Amino acid sequence: MTEVVREDFLEEAELNRSSRKDSQTLRWTNVPFLKDLSRIRIAESSLLPRRAPNHLLTMGNWVVNHWFSVLFLVVWLGLNVFLFVDAFLKYEKADKYYYTRKILGSTLACARASALCLNFNSMLILLPVCRNLLSFLRGTCSFCSRTLRKQLDHNLTFHKLVAYMICLHTAIHIIAHLFNFDCYSRSRQATDGSLASILSSLSHDEKKGGSWLNPIQSRNTTVEYVTFTSIAGLTGVIMTIALILMVTSATEFIRRSYFEVFWYTHHLFIFYILGLGIHGIGGIVRGQTEESMNESHPRKCAESFEMWDDRDSHCRRPKFEGHPPESWKWILAPVILYICERILRFYRSQQKVVITKVVMHPSKVLELQMNKRGFSMEVGQYIFVNCPSISLLEWHPFTLTSAPEEDFFSIHIRAAGDWTENLIRAFEQQYSPIPRIEVDGPFGTASEDVFQYEVAVLVGAGIGVTPFASILKSIWYKFQCADHNLKTKKIYFYWICRETGAFSWFNNLLTSLEQEMEELGKVGFLNYRLFLTGWDSNIVGHAALNFDKATDIVTGLKQKTSFGRPMWDNEFSTIATSHPKSVVGVFLCGPRTLAKSLRKCCHRYSSLDPRKVQFYFNKENF
Amino acid sequence: MGQIEWAMWANEQALASGLILITGGIVATAGRFTQWYFGAYSIVAGVFVCLLEYPRGKRKKGSTMERWGQKYMTAVVKLFGPFTRNYYVRAVLHLLLSVPAGFLLATILGTACLAIASGIYLLAAVRGEQWTPIEPKPRERPQIGGTIKQPPSNPPPRPPAEARKKPSEEEAAAAAGGPSGGPQVNPIPVTDEVV
């Protein structure tokens, strides 16, 4: 482009030189210099690498990728708000609770509204952890778009959100009830003959039905006594303590460092659910009965409360009844689903697992190749493994490292804690029998989508490289037999780790893939780069010295190792320019910070025109 | 369960209990419940517990995630030496702190939670755990030019003069590439570029 402009410039300069008489007759448009310089500028800007779009385009891309999550969360929040406001207004305005409000005020409505939200969220909290149900949904919805099925991966995030909402509403509920109890206590103690005190003294004489209003029956009863002797109070305290213990042991730090503490403590949810079911049995929330309202409506009779006992007054003493418990209606179905889920998990775990091969890799990595009847997997899925001889109740997740085309399934276990170390030690014993293994799964994640993208960018950081073993093997098998389902034409694989010791098995996989690709003559299919982040000047010096060697000194692979972290902007812009019209799937298994930078790059380098290059980001989470 | 550091969970639990004590105390004081002065105590106790428990101790194995801004409280907590290092002391302290809050319904939840935290600290103390502060790593100032290696100042060692004497044809052939006999004469002047 620049050359064309220059030629024009020269031509015009020639013309002007010939027609020019003197400088005063020159109009500025005839001066070729300025005009053509601007043309040169425009030409050059089209040669520039495409600058990253501004914030609006980034946001646009984000919305396109996440619209379903946003919609789902908005609906969930909206339902929460709606239920809260609806219950609040009901208890604040209804005549049935007129007398109750006289004692308690608005905190009655607060407590009931938060109770309704608690019911709703307790119903929702069990659903995202039903792994098998979600797998079933994922399988039946295979006709659904990628975006919709991806949302099922965020089940744990939703579980946590619902848990936070439960904590919030628990706080509101407890604080409101503290005020309620205090009001009840005060009106019980009051001797001023106000409406509140009259109402509180109701029904101690009437034995039938117990149409009392104030649960604090005598002047000497303390609120603490009522709390711990009523079903509602006792279950409330037990539920809240269970909730707090569950939350403190489920913080990220504890979960990642001491998984067993989290796993066992989280089973306190049984107390929470049981407590919730029977929390409302006592019927402490009282409203006026229908019959009593027909007889002496509060709007008419409240003013004349001194005369209720008079024989000739129209108004009688109001009668009250408690609420039937309704929490169980909300949680019954999810509890049944969850029980079915656990039964299914147990049933699947009882099926026999045959261990066909045990391999001890360097740096204490154990590979187990197994077979199980009826087991079929997809790439990148994970299974839960239990070893009864080590721990009866613990199930630990492991990504499958074998491809579906192979006739066994395998996992690579690295020593990273109590359970794994014990397992590796148990398998190292040469003379004792192999421990029995129970397997539940497989459970699916986003890497099932990796074959749908023309260009796939796979990033594995550290231990996160494991799902890619399965993916790469599977892609290779599909490629060899020219599977039509494989849309992938090019793979860019980035392997980032501190040192390759613990992943030498993956190294071997890459070496064998490299060899096979050379044999088939398809060297350009898989482009991989290894980044060693734990490097020092000795390693670099050594590498620099062996620069000319054909294979890398660290890994033995043809591709040279890079040191440090990849510069994603460069990588993404190179891929974008090499594949200007493709849909590129970016798959990451690694830390959150890396996910953030990759997500940003995806948004930045996707063009808003859907026909041009699009980057879709998928993250594995465990 | 061999490697669980119970103190880490006790720390989370105690921090949560502190917050619950503060909340319960605020509710009781603001609502002027009966015996609300226990609520006022609960706020103070809650703040104290939160400040004490905010700096996370160092894990024995592996790296510890620091809480945001905890280095200021680490310095203060470190000052008390054995009183904060020893988990028996913490267990007893939390148990004692939780008792007065148990007299008021609004703060009884805080009591229960803090008592549980005290129990977990006792378990941690029995297993010999200790609170070690997370020290900030001294920042290594990059030495400017430290990694630049000087070219060798001595010529490489050569075999003695007799071995160097070769027939003239080989010398002529080797003159193009290899080192010639005698002192080193560089065909291109070499300048030493030091940044």
Automatic annotation (TrEMBL), chain B:
Renumbered residue ranges of the record's region Disordered: 134-195
Subcellular location: Cell membrane
GO CC field: NADPH oxidase complex
Xref: InterPro entries: Cyt_b558_asu
Location (main, coarse): membrane
Protein keywords: Cell membrane, Electron transport, Heme, Iron, Membrane, Metal-binding, NADP, Oxidoreductase, Transmembrane, Transmembrane helix, Transport
Protein origin, superkingdom: Eukaryota
Residue ranges crossing the lipid bilayer per the database entry: 12-30, 36-54, 103-124
Keyword Transmembrane helix: yes
GO molecular function (one): metal ion binding
Function per UniProt: Subunit of NADPH oxidase complexes that is required for the NADPH oxidase activity that generates, in various cell types, superoxide from molecular oxygen utilizing NADPH as an electron donor. Subunit of the phagocyte NADPH oxidase complex that mediates the transfer of electrons from cytosolic NADPH to O2 to produce the superoxide anion (O2(-)). In the activated complex, electrons are first transferred from NADPH to flavin adenine dinucleotide (FAD) and subsequently transferred via two heme molecules to molecular oxygen, producing superoxide through an outer-sphere reaction.
Subunit structure: Component of the phagocyte NADPH oxidase core complex/cytochrome b558 complex, composed of CYBB (heavy chain (beta)) and CYBA (light chain (alpha)). Component of the phagocyte NADPH oxidase complex composed of an obligatory core heterodimer formed by the membrane proteins CYBA and CYBB and the cytosolic regulatory subunits NCF1/p47-phox, NCF2/p67-phox, NCF4/p40-phox and the small GTPase RAC1 or RAC2. Interacts with NCF1 (via SH3 domain). Interacts with SH3PXD2A. Interacts with DUOX1, DUOX2 and TPO. Interacts with NOX4; this interaction mediates superoxide generation.
Similarity comment text for this entry: Belongs to the p22phox family.
Protein known as: Cytochrome b-245 light chain
Protein's organism: Pan troglodytes
